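User: Could you check the structure of this?
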Amino acid sequence: MKKELVLTVVASDRPGLVGDISKVVADHKANWIDSSLSRLGGQFAGIVRVHVESSSAPDLTAALTKLETVGLTIGIHDLNTGNAPAGTQALLHILGQDQPGMISRVSSVLSNLHVSIETLESLVEPGSMSGELMFRANARVVIPPQISPSEVSEALEGIAADLMIDVELNEAAIEGD
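Assistant: Sure, the predicted structure tokens are below.
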């Protein structure tokens, strides 16, 4: 029987980190399913989902924990096999001058509408004309069946002026279509 694990990874960035992790996964005949890994502020951070035979999971867990000796901190979590939220997938794009609290305000609106955030990527970069710091975020969200995408857009537009951000919500193409 297969078991799914989610690994959270943090380390000071250096070459070979992915190799260290993937070797341990492969050595325990586990399958690297998907991941999101990146360098953030000099740190290497990410998440990895693996499948492993239930009988091999304790050995894999012990071997991953030993990677702390080479500077990796790895959290190991049994994947909750609950169903994904039902609803309409949409892509959310946010752009505006950087300021504290932007993600908090936007995520609060989404939470109040029971919209689930599946992925979120953000960055702050100098603006092309002014050089002022601009905040960009892209998210894949799931809008529950009882709410329309236009209702979500309206709710986000309600805070857009206060935050001085542009918000765009588009229904996502389902992967594989």
